[in-house]
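Long-time lurker, first post. I've been practising inverse folding by hand and with some scripts of my own, and I keep getting stuck on stretches where the structure tokens seem ambiguous. Below is the full token string for one chain I'm working on. Before anyone asks, I'm not after the true native sequence, just a reasonable design that respects the backbone. If someone could post their per-position residues I'd love to compare against what I wrote down in my notebook.
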């Protein structure tokens, strides 16, 4: 589930550029990325699906995400919450009544190789599969594959609404992960309360 969060955060912070060399016009993916990069606050409503070929079943969960331009985020998927307040990363499991608190290291990495989100074109190359509809992102450094960064992702966009439709990738278990974007809203400001840790008093706290 954590790599889903990593990919979800990366969506809002993509700053790479796609240019249609034939027409000289920016395509839909380019316009989406520019809007997200300029937004002070991005809100998503999502549906995540993990399709297991081994067990022949689909595990799905609804969720939401609020992502600020300064990198803070609050992501909820099912009963799990991932909160980054610019100082610590909090991973909360309601089922286990536990919150894991991690502190970024000197390099600014907060979740595995999550640092790639601020410069995705450094890590991924982009291929246009179907202009204004489907794109493929390929990891440039294969040694990072199998960590929190998928070696490839397929991105689907909706041209009419200029928004993301879904992302799809395979995890280290070879299960297909799909993030479907039900709603995408750009707002002028994120309220501070959204990034303030608030967990039950009885929660077990584990620090790293």
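-- Answer (accepted) --
I ran through it position by position. Result:
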């Amino acid at each position: 589930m954590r790599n889903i969060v990593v990919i979800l955060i990366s969506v809002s912070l993509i700053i790479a550029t796609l240019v249609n060399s034939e027409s000289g016009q920016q395509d839909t993916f380019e316009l989406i990325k520019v809007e997200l990069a300029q937004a002070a606050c991005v809100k998503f409503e999502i549906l995540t699906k993990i399709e297991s070929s081994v067990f022949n079943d689909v595990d799905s969960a609804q969720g939401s995400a609020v992502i600020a331009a300064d990198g803070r985020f609050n992501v909820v998927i099912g009963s799990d919450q991932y909160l980054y307040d610019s100082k610590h990363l909090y991973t909360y499991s309601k089922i286990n009544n536990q919150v894991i608190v991690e502190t970024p290291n000197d390099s600014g990495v907060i979740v595995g190789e999550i640092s790639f989100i601020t410069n995705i074109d450094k890590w991924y190359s982009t291929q246009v599969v179907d202009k204004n509809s489907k794109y493929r992102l390929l990891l440039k450094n294969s040694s990072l594959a199998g960590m929190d960064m998928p070696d490839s992702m397929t991105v689907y966009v909706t041209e009419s609404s200029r928004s993301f439709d879904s992302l799809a990738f395979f995890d280290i278990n070879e299960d297909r992960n799909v993030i479907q974007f039900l709603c995408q809203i750009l707002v002028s400001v994120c309220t501070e309360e959204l990034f303030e840790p608030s967990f039950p008093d009885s929660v077990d706290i584990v620090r790293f």
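A couple of notes from the structure itself: The helical segments are 2-13, 28-38, 120-123. The first helix runs from residue 2 to 13. Happy to go over any region you disagree with.
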